[in-house]
Amino acid sequence: MGFRLGLRRGLLGRRVSPEVQNPNEVAVAVLLPRQAAVDSSRSLVILGRRRLEAAEQREREEEMPTLTKLYSLEDAARHNTADDCWVVVDGKIYDVTKYLDDHPGGADVLLEVTGKDAKEEFDDAGHSESAKELMQDYFIGELDPTPNIPEMEVFRKEQDVNFASKLMANAAQYWPIPATVVGISVVIAVLYARQKKVANTIQNAKSGSVNGCFVRGLALGNHGYASGGGMTQLSPLKYTRWGKAHPLSKQWGGLPLNFEQSPCSVVCAPTIDQMTSFFAHVHPSCHPGAWMCRNC
Ligand code: HEM
Fold this sequence. Notes:
Blueprint: E1 3-9, E2 27-33, H1 34-63, E3 70-71, H2 73-77, E4 80-81, E5 84-89, E6 92-95, H3 107-112, H4 119-124, H5 129-135, E7 139-143, H6 149-174, H7 176-207, E8 215-220, H8 247-251, E9 264-268, H9 272-281, E10 291-292
The protein binds protoporphyrin IX containing FE.
């Protein structure tokens, strides 16, 4: 059985004669049986190919973008117990639950820094390179740098609900204010309309053409007239036809007035004489503001 002397670089074997041309290269002489040498050289080729493939694979992996799980700081903060402990260092999240007991700095220091980025504390502890390599075993993800938009939407919805309920509560509490405003407005509108009606009444009375009556005068005053014999109280500021006047008024040639109720009444009488008679007989001195339309 013959032997072949094989020179292989980087192989561990029996050193025979290291006649090396390049001093940086390690030359190794391997004494192998012929067949074994053939097999060995085949397996060396396979080994070499595998290493090459592994290197290429590593290269490909480095080039490929990796998928990293993203968490919010709030997510990370929830893992803050000895049974479930996440720490954040420089934006990277590590699940150190299984490492707590082995941590040379103690479990407490890790538990104390949960819920925040502990880069400063980590750096201050002066961790070695091997500690930093070890960390990679516990890496689970990174902090999500994007703002949490869905939460903002939820917040806006809640705000709407709050706004509606606050509006309802305020309405229930402060309803008397708008009701008072509306009430005052109505009263002002009624007073205004009434005043306007009075003004129109006086105007119409002066013009002498109200409801087909002979409007002979306008009495201004607030002295009561209706005293005798169940005199009907007439509504203030209403025109009263002479024909409907109370008999007592007619008897006096007087007028269906309502001085008692109103400071301003329209006086209707068929003739100016009757009007004059009324004021002469009944209240000659109590109606200084009486106005007579002598032209009618
Ligand atoms: C996955 C995360 C971590 C790993 C793998 C880790 C690992 C280690 C290791 C191996 C040591 C021994 C010293 C060294 O080799 O540097 C150490 C020490 C220490 N670590 Fe950590 N550590 C981690 C996180 C932290 C954090 C977040 C803090 C923050 C307070 C911290 C505080 C310390 C302290 C105070 C010491 C002791 C230093 C001393 O006594 O000199 N470690 N850590």
